[in-house]
């Protein structure tokens, strides 16, 4: 366990392939050294560390010193490898970052016996690949399988909506293999709302079942999410079409809070947690009243398996997840083409999406749960949230809880927007509530 505590990402997954006990310690250690002691892999790691460094906006002496120490350590380690032509290797590394994973794998396979390929090897490889593709009549794809190409990406059909753009299908919702059976008890009544076990469960259990079986919050159906639900019916209690009547929960509050009309969907003025707890206040530091969206500090995985930190805002009115181009560039993930356009209130000019990335997110305070997510890349999501510092007078009431955004009351940039489906999947089944005050 001591060795495992120093591992993360692909190294940890490799170590876990061996049953770990004291007798197998040499086996695991030898497996790790054999895999990661290759000079080329070490060099790639150090280059990635250098390219992913970025000075925070809130610059101070401590953060500047920490950044320059990391930079110097990576550069010193890179020089210690004594690469024959370090400048050429840097150009090669930058060029390889442009390729998609399939084409890069072919390049590495071709030069498997070369310790440090040259930049000219990469240029010749890509040119030959393009020539072969044209001769074979497949210049729009690497193969007949229709996989994404570096020459022309496959465009996924999409449709847009007023206020927010949306895909034509919920690509991240799995289809149940047994469509004729209820996912809850395996009986043939199919619809969850007809399941006795579901109908007799308490509210927290119902919400847990909806999350577990990835059901639509509006109609309790499968194979789609609430953003693409075609049901014409709303909640019998409040009329909302964002949740089913069985998922309606009332929260009694004071005049400062409206009644929550959803099963864990936030009304204006409430801020719920993402895999943890986040607070909201309606009173700004100058005494004026304001309304805050829920925010969370989360971890997001980069191209090399490393974790980056970002600040997310939870928006139940969006059917798509978004990420700023600045954070997307830091992650180093390849983008797929995306023809979405985002339109705001009042028919404002549409904003073109520069691409789409696939990655994973997790809470800032825990390695679990990990959520797979698709994000559309846009230049900017919103201005700093909150717009002005707010009182942290509620913090004492929630001091026993782990906050998703420890600095919820301080204005700060927003890097990620979590849409309705990812937001609902991230909510705790039993949020903390104090009568007459914000919930967490």
Can you lay out the helices and strands and say which pair or pack?
Layout (H helix, E strand, L loop, with lengths): L8 H7 L9 H12 L2 H13 L9 H20 L5 H11 L4 H10 L8 H17 L22 E3 L4 E3 L28 H4 L3 H10 L82 E7 L5 E8 L7 E3 H7 L9 E2 L8 E2 L2 E9 L7 E8 L37 E3 L1 H7 L14
Parallel strand pairs: 4-10, 5-9
Antiparallel strand pairs: 1-2, 3-4, 3-8, 5-10, 6-7, 8-9
Helix pairs in contact: 3-4
Overview of this structure, please?
The chain is an alpha+beta fold and 440 residues long. The protein folds into two domains: 4-135, no CATH class; 155-170 and 249-440, Cathepsin D, subunit A, domain 1 (Beta Barrel). Helix content is 27%, strand content 11%. It is built from eleven helices and ten strands. It has helices at residues 9-15, 25-36, 39-51, 61-80, 86-96, 101-110, 119-135, 196-199, 203-212, 325-331, 420-426, and strands at residues 158-160, 165-167, 295-301, 307-314, 322-324, 341-342, 351-352, 355-363, 371-378, 416-418. The strands form three sheets. A six-stranded mixed beta barrel has the order 3-4-10-5-9-8. A two-stranded antiparallel sheet has the order 1-2. Strand 1 and strand 2 form a beta hairpin. Helix 3 (39-51) runs antiparallel to helix 4. The model is unreliable at 141-178 and 251-287 (pLDDT under 50).
């Amino acid at each position: 366990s001591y060795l495992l505590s120093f591992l993360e990402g692909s190294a940890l997954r490799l170590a876990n392939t061996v049953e770990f006990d004291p007798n197998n310690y040499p086996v695991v250690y030898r497996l790790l050294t054999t895999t990661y002691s290759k000079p080329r892999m070490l060099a790639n790691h150090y280059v990635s560390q250098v390219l992913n460094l970025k000075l925070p906006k809130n610059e101070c002496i401590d953060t500047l010193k920490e950044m320059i120490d990391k930079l110097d350590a990576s550069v010193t380690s890179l020089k210690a490898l004594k690469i024959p032509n370090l400048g050429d290797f840097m150009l090669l590394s930058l060029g390889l970052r442009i390729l998609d994973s399939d084409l890069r794998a072919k390049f590495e396979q071709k030069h498997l016996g070369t310790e440090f390929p040259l930049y000219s090897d990469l240029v010749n490889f890509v040119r030959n690949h393009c020539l072969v593709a044209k001769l074979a009549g497949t210049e729009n794809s690497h193969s007949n399988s229709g996989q994404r190409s570096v020459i022309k990406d496959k465009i996924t059909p999409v449709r847009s909506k007023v206020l927010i753009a949306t895909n034509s299908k919920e690509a991240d919702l799995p289809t149940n293999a047994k469509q004729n059976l209820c996912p809850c008890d395996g009986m043939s009544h199919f619809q969850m709302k007809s399941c006795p076990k579901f109908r007799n469960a308490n509210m927290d259990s119902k919400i847990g079942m909806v999350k577990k079986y990835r059901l639509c919050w509006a109609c309790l159906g499968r194979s789609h999410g609430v953003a693409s639900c075609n049901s014409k019916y709303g909640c019998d209690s409040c009329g909302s079409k964002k949740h089913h009547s069985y998922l309606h929960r009332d929260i009694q509050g004071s005049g400062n809070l409206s009644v929550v009309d959803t099963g864990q969907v936030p009304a204006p003025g409430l801020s719920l947690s993402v895999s943890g707890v986040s607070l909201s206040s309606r009173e700004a530091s100058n005494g004026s009243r304001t309304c805050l969206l829920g925010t969370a500090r989360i971890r997001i995985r980069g191209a090399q398996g490393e974790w980056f930190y970002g600040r997310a805002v939870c928006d139940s009115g969006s059917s798509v997840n978004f990420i700023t181009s600045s954070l997307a560039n830091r992650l180093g993930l390849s983008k797929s083409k995306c023809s979405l356009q985002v339109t705001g209130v009042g028919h404002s000019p549409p904003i073109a999406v520069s691409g789409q990335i696939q990655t994973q997110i997790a809470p800032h305070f825990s390695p679990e749960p990990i959520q797979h997510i698709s994000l559309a890349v846009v230049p900017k999501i919103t201005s700093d949230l909150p717009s002005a510092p707010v009182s942290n007078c509620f913090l004492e009431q929630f001091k026993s809880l782990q906050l998703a955004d420890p600095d919820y009351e301080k204005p700060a940039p927003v890097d990620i927007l979590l849409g309705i489906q990812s937001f609902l999947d991230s909510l705790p089944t039993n949020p903390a509530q104090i009568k007459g005050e914000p919930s967490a």
